[in-house]
Design a protein that fits this description.
The protein is an alpha/beta fold. The chain has eight helices and six strands, in the order βαβββαβααβαααα. A six-stranded mixed beta sheet has the order 2-3-1-4-5-6, with helices on both faces. Keywords: Oxidoreductase, Pyruvate.
């Protein structure tokens, strides 16, 4: 049995998924894991899908997570969870930000935002759902939503023994360290 863990982070361009993955990868490396990360930007500047794949363990040879291999799927936007659910292992976990960013076809009236995504996912998987954007707004900066999501991921995977405060200090710009540490802790509080 492999000791490698697979994390798939998905969302929409502009949500800070790349920074979230860097915080995660830096924390895992600081704990002594071999870490590989892959990112796909797609049409990120136009509100398109963004995914990052983080794999860690004793020795990791490839950054790519195939279908049915993700231990955890972290979705920064709920429609993206539905698009990527096929990458989750049967006993995997899902962490979803209950947040909507309409795609171009929805904005132009060619399609409707799908209803019942979270309810459908709840039928089939272990899922934690919360409103990371509202938490980030309460902290005073919606842009910290990504770090709220990292906090939830860290707690969901039992990785809260790593010094994440130090990781945040070493990863984000100095003037944003304090608010991002608060965001990380608020995210951790969302997972029981």
């Amino acid at each position: 049995m492999s000791d490698i863990k697979n994390i798939l982070l998905v969302g929409v361009g502009g949500q800070g998924i790349i920074l979230a993955s860097k915080i995660l990868a830096n924390g895992l490396m600081s704990a002594g894991y071999d870490v590989k990360m892959s990112e796909v930007h797609g049409m990120a500047q136009r509100g398109g899908s963004v995914t990052t794949q983080v794999r860690f363990g004793k020795k990791v040879y490839s950054p790519i997570i195939g279908r049915g291999q993700a231990d955890i799927l972290v979705s920064f936007e709920k429609m993206e969870a539905g698009k990527w659910i096929d990458h989750l292992k049967k006993d995997g976990k899902v962490v979803v930000n209950d947040y909507e960013i309409p795609s171009a076809p929805i904005l132009t009236g060619q399609a409707e935002y799908p209803k019942g995504i979270i309810e459908e996912l709840q039928k089939y998987t272990d899922i934690t759902v919360f409103k990371a954007a509202e938490i980030a707004k309460e902290l005073g900066n919606i842009k910290t939503m990504n770090v709220v999501m990292v906090g939830a991921l860290v707690k969901a995977m039992g990785l809260d023994n790593i010094n994440w405060d130090e990781v945040v200090k070493n990863t984000v710009k100095e003037k944003f360290v304090g608010i991002n540490i608060k965001a990380l802790r608020k995210g951790m509080e969302q997972v029981k």
